[in-house]
Amino acid sequence: MIDRSYVYEPGFIDAGARAEILSWLATLRPLWEQRYSTRRPPPSGKQQRPLLRPVYWLGNWQFACLGYYEPPRRTFDVAVAAEPFPPVLARLVAQIEKKVRAGFPPPQVPRRWHLNTCLVNFYGDRIEGDKATDAARVGEHRDFEPGPVASLSLGERARFQFVRRGDREAPPVRTQWLEDRSLQIFGGPRWKDDLLHRVQRVEDKHDLDLPPAIAGFRTRRVNFTFRYVPDEHVVPFAKLPERARDDVRDYVATLAESSAFFKAALVSERSRTAAAR
Ligand SMILES: O=C(O)CCC(=O)C(=O)O
Fold first, then answer.
1. What is the CATH number of the domain that holds 133?
2. What atom of ligand 1 comes closest to residue 160's alpha carbon?
3. How far apart are CA 154 and CA 181, in angstroms?
4. Which of 27, 59, 130, 187 is least buried, going by the fewest C-beta atoms within 10 A?
């Protein structure tokens, strides 16, 4: 039976688009965030830790310390307005949206669904002195943003698995190797809600070192996961509550060092705060 809620398409990104994405990646400065706010002790029973990998977000940035977008319980003041997609990704996203609208069961595509959010995950090794530690995996989780999610992969192949909730040892329901230049899309209650997904491992066969250079890290795979956050839930940095602004200001300042978008966000926050005094 054809499953209209799942797509895997190898070779979706052509060689020209791949080269364009790599040049754009070289201009980024990914963040290696702490899981919790650095301004106060972590929640009881939790330990402060850096995320497993550096990330970059487009459209809106979901800072780990503010908690990730999770309707209906967490929708406001967590999706912070971020840079738009670069032209090459905007072009690919337009094609993906067309595919989804043409092929996915309409009830699985929310009325105003469009892919306005992208998490860029960098997979590779943490480097400390001579020691490299493989950090190229993601544990079981689900993506809470409504509607289908689409992901593009570059670099080494990743073993991506859908697993049943609460049964880590059970065999995966589906294993899909995500190859360089591939597209994966999944939606609907089965793939999005009932099952969890994970990246079990990423191959290391081609000695890759993908851009940008990140201190203490060697990247061998980059994944772009595109999602939909309703536009009314995306908040400019300047309009976050004060405590949340304090939590993420240092990150925004770091991003502003190489991003005109975040530079402007900082300026706007300063003038708004000055005007309120
Ligand atoms: O890297 C991937 O292929 C998947 C990433 C992922 O699961 C996520 O961003 O939620």
1. 2.60.120.590
2. 3
3. 5
4. 130
